[in-house]
């Protein structure tokens, strides 16, 4: 179960959810999204290398049932395996957010949730269509 899907991230991290665990929701990546999840994990490797600190994943892939349970957007990229909520360890949250935002690295959305203490990042299949939107919620 803890098999690596990229240099730094594991299969277990791709489906982690304290809400899912608490509510007994099985959060299993469907076969048709496994390549997308691996692609997103590889993109997260770049973020992790850039920040030079480990990134603890709070949420990655979410089934529709899990997304509903956490109150996620009906169009959440988490349901497609294209978004990750994470905490950089050993680095201030805002510092990590600003470093990514000002880096020139590509992403679709970068959102800091300072009250909930995590960063959300999402990617597109086609990097040339990524909007590089960065904001605070």
Question: Any descriptors?
Answer:
137 residues, alpha+beta, Muramoyl-pentapeptide Carboxypeptidase, domain 2, five-stranded mixed β-sheet, 5 strands, 18% strand
Describe the protein's topology.
Blueprint: H1 11-14, H2 18-23, H3 34-51, E1 55-59, H4 64-69, E2 83-88, H5 93-101, E3 109-113, E4 118-122, E5 133-136
Parallel strand pairs: 3-5
Antiparallel strand pairs: 1-2, 2-4, 3-4
Q: Name the poorly predicted regions.
A: none
**N- to C-terminal distance:** 33 Å
Which class in CATH terms?
Alpha Beta
Strand order of the largest sheet: 1-2-4-3-5
Instruction: State the shape.
Output: globular
Q: CATH topology, anyone?
A: Muramoyl-pentapeptide Carboxypeptidase, domain 2
**Oligomeric status:** single chain
CATH architecture: 2-Layer Sandwich
Major beta-sheet overview: 5 strands, mixed
Number of helical stretches of at least 4 residues: 5
Helix content: 25-40%
How many domains? The number is 1
Order of helices and strands: HHHEHEHEEE
Number of strands: 5
Strand content is 15-25%
Round the Cα radius of gyration to an integer and report it: 14 Å
Classification by helices and strands? alpha+beta
Mean pLDDT: 96
């Amino acid at each position: 179960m803890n098999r690596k899907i990229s240099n730094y991230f594991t299969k277990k991290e791709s489906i982690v959810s304290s809400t899912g665990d608490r509510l007994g929701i099985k959060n299993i990546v469907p076969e048709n999204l496994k390549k997308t999840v691996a692609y997103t994990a590889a993109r997260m490797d770049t973020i992790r290398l850039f920040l030079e600190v480990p990134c603890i994943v709070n949420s990655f892939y979410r089934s529709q049932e899990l997304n509903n349970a956490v109150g996620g957007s009906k169009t959440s990229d988490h349901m497609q395996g294209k978004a990750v909520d994470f905490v950089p360890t050993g680095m201030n949250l805002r510092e990590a957010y600003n470093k990514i935002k000002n880096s020139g690295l590509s992403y679709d959305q970068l959102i800091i949730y300072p009250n909930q203490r995590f960063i959300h990042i999402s990617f597109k299949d086609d990097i040339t269509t990524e909007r590089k939107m960065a904001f605070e919620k």
